[in-house]
Amino acid sequence: MDIIAPIITPFRSGKVDVETFINHAKNIMKKGVDALFVAGTTGLGPALSLEERKALLEAASSVTRRVIMQVGFLNLYDVLALVKYAEKFDIEAVASVPPYYFPGLSQRQVAKYFRELCAATSLPVYLYNYPAAVGRNVDAEMAKAIGCLKGVKDTNPDLAHTLAYKRLMPEIKAYKGSDSLVMAFFAVGLDGVIVASANYIPDVLVKIRDAVLRRDVEKAKRLQFLINEILEVATPLGYNSSVYELVRIFQGYDPGEPRPPIYPLESEEREKLAKAVSRIKEALNKL
Ligand code: FW2
């Protein structure tokens, strides 16, 4: 069961800071992250240009071959250009959100999009299903009907929804993306988690996985609850922005800033987060 980081994209004065990205990737992989999900939601993928995503792909590939590259854009031409570029690297897979924003697409058109992606590459193609963000759900039945998907990253609190992919397509990889339920995803034997907290507390996720494998449910639960306490403070401040600050707090370095409209936290918000998290940090260190 893998711990996969939807890695943040560090910006400085509006530009992607590739060096910080590489250093961050190396650090979290040293601490137990198994693979990188690049240009996902936490990586602010939809806010990145084609050229920026190419640079991140190259940077991630210089750190590990275990890269899943999120290639969804609002137009197919950029998608295919990035997929073609990804072919140059020995990476694990490309993933895409379904076509988004436009509510008028038919199921046939959405399926056609994924089939075109599969036809364009010899790399495995994964579905990144995130209905709350994308406004469209590609459930297990539809994913199966598409016929060429090799994996799914399901971001959706409904565990049964994710298990259905595994039931209908036992051969594909199924990952889940909700920080508040990591222990449950390990307990039901999914292929792993792709969660933002892998950016700031990869070691805690490793401990949860170890505890679940040892069947130490109590310990897994105590660790999980501490993550959930972090989420309770961070979410109202803007979780995407807070992740940068949480990296600073837990990993002790400057990970750059997000890109507006994902605004960096303001100083009072940073103080509030740091204060609330210091007690949680102590409790995590004791476990
Ligand atoms: C990503 C993920 C994880 C998210 C989830 C929601 O790309 O950020 O879907 O943690 O914030 O895969």
TrEMBL record:
Enumerate the InterPro entries for this protein: Aldolase_TIM, DapA-like, ED_pathway_aldolase
- What EC number(s) does this enzyme carry? 4.1.2.-
Keyword Lyase (UniProt): yes
Q: What residues form the catalytic site here?
A: Y128, K153
What keywords are annotated for this sequence in UniProt? Carbohydrate metabolism, Lyase, Schiff base
Provide any one GO MF term from the record. 4-hydroxy-tetrahydrodipicolinate synthase activity
Query: What Pfam families does this protein's entry cite?
Result: DHDPS
Pathway membership, UniProt: Carbohydrate acid metabolism; 2-dehydro-3-deoxy-D-gluconate degradation; D-glyceraldehyde 3-phosphate and pyruvate from 2-dehydro-3-deoxy-D-gluconate: step 2/2
Residues bound to pyruvate: T42, I194
| Quaternary structure and interacting proteins, as annotated | Homotetramer; dimer of dimers.
- Name the family the entry cites: Belongs to the DapA family. KDPG aldolase subfamily.
Q: Which NCBIfam families match?
A: Arch_KDGaldase
According to UniProt, the name of this protein is Dihydrodipicolinate synthase/N-acetylneuraminate lyase
